[in-house]
Structure formats: C-alpha cells, structure tokens
Amino acid sequence: MVTKAPEDAYTAEPFLPERGGLPALRKAAAECRGCPLHRDATQTVFGAGNAHARVMLVGEQPGDQEDRQGKPFVGPAGKLLDRALGEAGLDPADAYVTNAVKHFKFTQAEPRKRRIHKAPSLREMTACGPWLAAELAVVEPELIVVLGATAGKALLGSSFRVTQVRGTVLEEEIHGRRERLVPTVHPSAVLRADDREAAYRGLVSDLEVAARALS
Fold first, then answer.
1. Which of the four, 2, 9, 61, 62, has the lowest number of CB atoms within 10 Å?
2. What is the DSSP string of 5-38?
3. CA–CA separation, 106 vs 116, rounded Å?
4. In tens digits, what is the pLDDT along the chain, a chain of 215 residues?
5. Residue 66 C-alpha from the chain's centroid
6. Where do runs of H (alpha helix) occur along the chain?
7. Which residues contact 13 (CB under 8 A, 6 or more apart)?
C-alpha cells in the first residue's frame, strides 16, 4: 500500500498545535509539510510583530531575503513598506506582518543563479490558510491591510481585484470572524512600477485610509 506524502493533501491543518499563542504556532509552522513548497524553500517564514497589534498586514509570500533570514518583509519591499507606514501615520513597530503563504515559491534557471519569485497557486494559498486563520484568531487585529492581489485572493476569494477596491474599507467575514480590511498594492509592485514615485504616493494614500480607520 502506497501512503501519500502529507504535502499531497494540500492542507496545513494537521500541523497546527492544539493550543498556545504565536510562539507555539511559529514553532509548529517550522515543521509544516502541508504543501510541496516546503521542499525547495530554505525555511518557513512565519508572521512577526506585535502580538496585540491593532493592524495586521498580509502580503503574498516570503521573497528571497525573507527565505534566507526566516523573517517577513526584511528585503527591499519590506523597507519601502516601513517607510510608507511611517509616512501614513502608522508605526511599523505596532503592526503584525505576515504572508498568505509561508514558504518562498520560485523558479531557478540553474543552481547559484538568482531565484525568481513565482506567484503561489490558489491550491497552495488554500493549503496555507489555516496558519493565517490561527494568526488572526490570536492577534485579533482591528484592521487588516491587504497587500496585493494574491493576499486579497487568499482572504477574499479568487474574484478579488486590488485595483477595484484599493484604498477603501471593506467589511467581510474572514475565517469565521468579522473583519475590516483595507486593500492596497504590494510594496514590491511599487518597486517594479515605471513611475515609482506615483506608485509610492498611491501606497501611502491607501495606508492613510487605514490609519484613519483606526483613529
């Protein structure tokens, strides 16, 4: 009889601890094999920040630097996000930051070549959903800032379009909890934009909406 590997089930559910706060979740997530992405990634990159944060920022997945360091938003996009949060009147130290998917998905032409980010599939996002649900249940933020289309699809379904709802306050049921959300672009999209300054101002403007929603 051939037994299926746990990653073939595409769910993180069996890896969640029965009890405990963020430290217990982080420790358990380090051993997650709920989808095939764990095979190539260096490590799990769990959320970080204030366990009692009023605002939770949810991105897509770890990037190259995050995968190497094991912390979310430590690369160029993270530095830009911190600057934008500060300009919008939100203290990055008071936030909790995480990703919809906890392992880095990438393509690589050959060993030692640069690893190119690849968007996670809906199946991979769904597999990782229990971790995000657990983080929301522990932190209980007053507001979720949705960073980009992938995070939006993970939280709000496959019909989500960031361009249609960015900079607005939404109220939706997420993982059994009534949540307020402000969608915006992912900071990495600002770094890739042709007019980076305009894209950055747009991000700050959306984050100002989030700041006002918390005041």
1. 2
2. PGGGG---GGGS-SS--HHHHHHHHTT--SSGGG
3. 5
4. 545 688 989 999 999 999 999 999 999 999 999 999 999 999 999 999 999 999 999 999 999 999 999 999 999 999 999 999 999 999 999 999 999 999 999 998 787 788 989 999 999 999 999 999 999 999 999 999 999 999 999 999 999 999 999 999 999 999 888 999 999 999 999 999 999 999 999 999 999 999 999 98
5. 12
6. 22-29, 64-69, 76-88, 122-139, 149-156, 162-165, 187-192, 196-214
7. 34, 130
- Calpha distance 171→77 (Å, rounded): 27
Q: Which residues pair with 55 in a beta bridge?
A: 95, 143
State which amino acid sits at residue 86: G
Give the separation between CA 24 and CA 145, rounded to whole angstroms. Answer: 24
Cβ proximity of 175 and 129 under 8 Å:
yes
Q: Classify residue 22 by burial, with Cβ atoms within 10 Å: 0-12, 13-18, 19+.
A: middle
109 near 74, Cβ under 8 Å? no
Flag whether the pTM goes above 0.85: yes
Number of Cβ within 10 Å of residue 39's Cβ equals: 10
